[in-house]
Structure formats: C-alpha cells, structure tokens
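Hi support team,

I've been running sequence recovery on a batch of backbones for a student project. Most finish fine, but this one hangs at about 90% for roughly twenty minutes before it completes. I'm not sure whether the input is malformed or the queue is just slow. I've pasted the structure tokens below so you can try to reproduce it. Let me know if you need the job ID as well.

Thanks,
M.K.
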C-alpha cells in the first residue's frame, strides 16, 4: 500500500495526466514530434544505464538493439498485421533474447573488449538487415500508419501518449531495480567484480539479467519507431548518433542513480530539439561531445551526483 501512494507514483500519474492534457491543448504537431524523440531517447538512456551504469559494462551497441526492435515490428507487421502493442511486446522479446545471447558470449570480457564486442554486434545486425530483402534490405521499408487512433485527434498524438506510458514504465523498472537486491548485486559488480565473486555474488547470472533487461527496453524504444517515421532504412535505424545519445545522456545526468538518465535525457534531448529548430541538427553531435567531455572531466558523477554531494555538504 505504501508503494502505491509513494511520491514517485503520484508524480507518474501527474505526468500521464499532463500528457493527456497536452494532446488536447497543443495545436502544433511539431511539439509532439519533438516530445516523442525526447521520450524515445529517455527510454534508451534508462535502458543503457541498467548495464552501463548499474553494472559498469559500457555498451556501444545500443543502436543494434534499438534497430532489432524496429525491424521486428516491420517484419511482423508485414507478415501478420499485428497491432502496435503486440509489436512492442515482440520487439522487447527479440531484443531481450539478443541481449541474453550477446551477454552469454561477451560478458566474460571486460572494459574496452566488451565495448568493442557490443559495437561489433550492431555492425553484424546492420549487415544482416541490409541483406534481408523481406524488410526492404538496404533500400528500406515503408510503413502505413493505421487509420484507427482511438480517441486522439491524430496518430502522432497517440504515438506520443504511448511513448510517454512506455517511458514512465521504463523509469519505474529502473527505479525498482536500483533499490532491489538485484540492483545491489549489480552495484557490487560495478564497484569490484572480483570482490563480489569472492563474496558469493552470482556475477554472471546477474550480468545476464542486466543485459536481457537492457536489450528488451531498447527493443521497446525501437518497436514503435517505424510507425513514427513511416520509412526505415538500415542507415537511419542503426545510426551511430542513437548509440552516442544513449551513452551521453546517462553520463551527463548521472549513472549511479535511477534518476540520472531521466535528467540527462530531458536536458540533452530538449537542447537538441531547440538547436535543431533554431540552428542546425548537425550541431547536435558537437553539443553532445562538448557536454560529455565537460562532465567526464569536471563532474564524472553527473548532475544527480553533484546535487547529492551538495545536499550531503549542507546536511553535514
């Protein structure tokens, strides 16, 4: 009962209610497009942090898991015409299984070797998809958006609300994991994996759980993507900027706490959309690079870490 009335769940209900009101009050379609992209990045940042932040294993293959979810949607929509909620579940299952398989093969590697292995995964998946003619191959695939969009005035509004629900659910999972026994085991692996093994922590099993959850959440972010852009090609789905954002946002917000990726995604994502409209989308890569260098050099604990440090000093 206590969890049901916790400040987090009250905030989640308020956010969802505000999202519904936003779909009725906002007139400019661009607002929904920008909000969708920020929420998509938020889910990916939260997902990356489960492995990269909580466990300490840096993953450069985020775009591969994201694209796996997207192309699962394309394949099943073409084959069976499934509704979007089922496609999202399927994308989560496929990307989660890929995460489990990749984890089993690569989690015995550490540091830069693991990072390179995950980057190689994205390249292998992109090569496979580029030669898979059923989903369009290198030419790409067009997706027809369904005419039914419930009570919303447009399909973009419905996609925005769906992504908002998925983002809240992702944050809830990350928060629950952060304070759970599993989360404490992942933190022990991050701090000192050898010591954790000596203390009896089942490190390989926990890391496999971490990669599976990470992959599934990346797939959730990617599954609705084809219905948002209506045309998907391997170059856009496996875009390296997707992976860079997934890494930069948690590191800027703070990787040691569940709130860090949320803060980083909202800050960096909002700045990127503002720059895209007022200057050029090409500047976004420069923005992320500069912010990442500054935070790694001056505040490696991220924004949330800085706030926590300040609060501890005030209470001392």
């Amino acid at each position: 009962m206590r969890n049901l009335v916790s400040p987090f769940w009250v905030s989640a209900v308020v956010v969802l209610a505000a999202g519904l009101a936003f779909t009725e009050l906002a007139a400019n379609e661009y607002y929904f497009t920008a909000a969708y992209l920020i929420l998509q990045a938020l889910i990916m940042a939260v997902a990356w942090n489960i492995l990269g932040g909580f466990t300490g294993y840096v993953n450069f293959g985020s775009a591969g898991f994201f694209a796996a979810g997207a192309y699962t949607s394309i394949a099943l929509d073409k084959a069976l015409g499934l509704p979007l909620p089922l496609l999202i579940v399927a994308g989560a299952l496929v990307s989660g299984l890929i995460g489990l398989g990749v984890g089993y093969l690569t989690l015995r590697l550490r540091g830069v070797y693991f990072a390179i292995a995950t980057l190689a995964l994205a390249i292998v998946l992109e090569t496979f998809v580029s030669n898979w003619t059923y989903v369009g191959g290198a030419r790409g695939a067009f997706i027809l958006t369904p005419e039914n969009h419930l009570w919303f005035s447009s399909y973009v509004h419905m996609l925005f609300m769906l992504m908002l629900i998925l983002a809240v659910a992702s944050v809830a999972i990350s928060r629950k994991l952060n304070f759970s026994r599993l989360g404490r085991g992942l933190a022990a692996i991050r701090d000192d994996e050898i010591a954790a093994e000596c203390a009896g922590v089942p490190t390989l099993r926990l890391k496999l759980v971490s990669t599976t959850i990470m992959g599934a959440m990346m797939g959730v972010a990617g599954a609705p993507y084809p219905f948002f852009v209506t045309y998907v090609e391997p170059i856009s789905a496996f875009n390296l900027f997707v992976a860079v954002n997934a890494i930069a946002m948690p590191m800027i917000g703070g990787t040691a706490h569940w709130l860090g990726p949320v803060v980083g995604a909202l800050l960096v994502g909002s700045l990127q959309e503002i720059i895209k409209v007022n200057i050029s989308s090409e500047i976004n890569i420069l923005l992320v690079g500069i912010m990442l260098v500054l935070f790694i050099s001056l505040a490696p604990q991220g924004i949330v870490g800085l706030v926590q440090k300040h609060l501890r000093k005030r209470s001392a």
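--
Follow-up from support: It reproduced on our side and the slowdown came from queue contention, not your input. Residues 151 and 158 are 8 Å apart (CA to CA). No action needed from you.
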